[in-house]
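In the lab's daily routine, each protein ends up as an entry in a very long ledger. A line of letters takes care of the sequence, but it says nothing directly about the fold. The fold becomes a row of whole numbers, each drawn from a learned catalogue of backbone shapes. The protein below has been through that process, and both of its lines are reproduced in full:
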Amino acid sequence: MGNHRKPNPPSRARLAVVTTAMAGTAVLASATSSHAEPKPSVDAVKTQVEALNEQAEASIEKYNGFKEKQQKLQTEANQIQERVASGQEKINGLRTELGGVAAEQYRNGGIDPTVQLMLSSSPESYLTQASMQGQVASSQADLLKQLQSEQRGLDQDRAEATATLAELDRSNAALAAEKKGIQDKLSQAQALLNKLSAEERARVNAQDAAATRASRAGSRNEPAPTYQGPATGRAADAVKFAYAQLGKPYVWGATGPGSFDCSGLTGAAWKAAGVSLPRISQDQWNAGKRVSRADLQPGDLVFFYSDLHHVGLYIGDGKMIHAPRTGKNVEILPIDSMDGPFMGGVRP
């Protein structure tokens, strides 16, 4: 039969150690709980998200400018490289032709002209040959001049190509840096939103009541709004186009047809009216006649913030259609509802 001795009870010293450890764990848990980061309020998140999105939008217009410059530089580089290839091909042809002329001259001119005349059985034949030799020499000189001219042009094109490609590299680097900055700001905004519940996130991204109604374009319960105002001609065409985009999402860098950023929307609206506007809002500011707020008419461009990084399309009654920011849709909004100051209007 096995030996079934009862275990010895823990000593007082051991009990004291265990009790102290448990107490320390409880105090630590209590301290951790009391110092946990409090959940931010919806209003605080909304304020921070709006600020981050405003900073992102300013960077987006810079990005659009860099991208437009990049595309122009790439087109220029391609054209210059085509000229370089064509010039090199032409020079190769001239060199081949010049080599043939030189060979012909060598074959016909290897003996001193006086000796040739003395040895010739027919002076008339010799003089004819000498005349042809002179023509060959003249042709050779012309080819040399043409070759030199073509080479100078080719060297200039190559230098221009090198400079353009270097500028393109700088533009690509600036584009990538701006893109990263935008993505970082939008990621920060999303991280803040992720701390909220789905209902709270919806409250932060909620559009104004009027904007929400306008953004229901195409829903079964409410017909899509259309422009019924007094504008005529191209201005009316631009405004009607903008109305047709209500409810489409804001996507930075987008110019339609399924999504837009702010200057992408205004540019597309006036393009539909037959007017080409620059890509970015700051350049659109210089794309027409300046008008005061009191003189605004439907179709005018309206600008906000001191750096002009946001633009919308005025539709009358103190309202505009604009593409607001990431997370929102193209909407109708009173221009007084903008956080940034109204800077002025432009009539394309």
User: Anything to note?
Assistant: DSSP finds nine helices and six strands in the chain.
